[in-house]
Amino acid sequence: ETGVTQSPTHLIKTRGQQVTLRCSSQSGHNTVSWYQQALGQGPQFIFQYYREEENGRGNFPPRFSGLQFPNYSSELNVNALELDDSALYLCASSSLASNEQFFGPGTRLTVL
Amino acid sequence: QQQVKQSPQSLIVQKGGISIINCAYENTAFDYFPWYQQFPGKGPALLIAIRPDVSEKKEGRFTISFNKSAKQFSLHIMDSQPGDSATYFCAAGRKGGYQKVTFGTGTKLQVIP
Question: For A77-95, b where at least 16 C-beta lie within 10 A, e where not — what string?
């Protein structure tokens, strides 16, 4: 059984640029959630995807958007990057029948 | 709005001691209370979870105690080991609509030999 994987591991961008982060969910899971974890803080829920549609969203602006593909993998896109977007971005997969979420190792995004 | 409050922010425990981390929640709709362990550079890993119909759950050295009336729950790590040194997050979630887990602010645990 393959766990949740994310790419890239690290990324450096400049303010105003756009970024795409990728996630492959754990085998058998059809739901993907994305979280932002600032340094020294707990993860904050961005949004969740189920059956290729956004299924719920946290308090993040529309410049944070996502996709889920038929194989349940997912992308997180962030436009017009701001310095405060620097964080660890975590992807978590689960089955809709269960609350249990399994996290990937994250992508460390630095915005300069 | 902080819906899950966690304390202490940091904790130093001697090897063999008991580590205790406390959390409190506000939303009575929460019905799932997991604890996650996170090592530097890694994503959070599910450690143990409890539902509000039980007051205690034990898995190995890890125990969750749950007080529904007080809206509080805690993690006890018995016989703490240096390998337990990590950041621990409590969280709360609910069924229905969409899954969302609300995390506490984390407790950095250091177990010293």
Answer: ebeebeeebbbbbbbbbbb
**Rounded-to-integer distance, Cα A43 and Cα B95, Å:** 19
Across the interface, of A43, A100, A102, the residue whose CB is closest to B103 is A43
CA distance B36 to chain A (A): 10
Nearest CA in chain B to A89: B43
pLDDT per residue as tens digits for the range A66-92: 999 998 899 999 999 999 999 999 999
For residue A42, give the nearest of B46, B97, B106 by CB distance: B106
Q: Tens-of-pLDDT digits for all 113 residues of chain B?
A: 558 999 999 999 999 999 999 999 998 889 889 999 999 988 999 999 998 899 999 999 999 999 999 999 999 999 999 999 999 999 998 865 566 789 999 999 999 99
Number of alpha helices (DSSP H) and beta strands (DSSP E) in chain A: 0, 11
Candidates A41, A94, A102; nearest CB to B105: A41
Which chain A residues are closer than 8 Å to B32 by Cβ? 99
**Token couple for A41:** 């803080």
Q: What are phi and psi of B82, to 5 degrees?
A: -55, -30
